[in-house]
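Q: what sequence does this backbone want?
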């Protein structure tokens, strides 16, 4: 299994093992300190908002317009690091990625 570092809303860092081939959202919603992911990954609610550590951003696929539209509506949107975790596949090349769960908006 690959690993991921998750910073919860209280600022506590957790190192977890996670299965590749899933969306990051699918991994995070199973954690007590993860994301709500109300729409189940349909890119329609933004309840899976995360911040990706800046060094990992270049390794991610570019945001599509529907993701960017939702992110732009959030009061805590960070142009460089905000992502919807339902839009990011967790691959072996992302093992070690650090993400922070965004505040509920």
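A:
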């Amino acid at each position: 299994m690959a690993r991921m570092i998750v910073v919860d809303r209280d600022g506590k860092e957790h190192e977890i093992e996670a299965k590749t081939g899933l969306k990051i959202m699918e991994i995070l919603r199973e954690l007590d300190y993860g994301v709500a992911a109300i729409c189940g990954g349909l890119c329609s609610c933004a309840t899976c908002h995360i911040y990706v550590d800046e060094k990992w951003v270049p390794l991610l696929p570019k945001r599509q317009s529907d993701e960017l539209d939702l992110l732009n509506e959030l009061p805590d949107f960070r142009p460089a690091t905000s992502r919807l975790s339902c839009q990011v596949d967790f691959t072996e090349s992302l093992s070690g990625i650090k993400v922070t769960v965004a505040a509920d908006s």
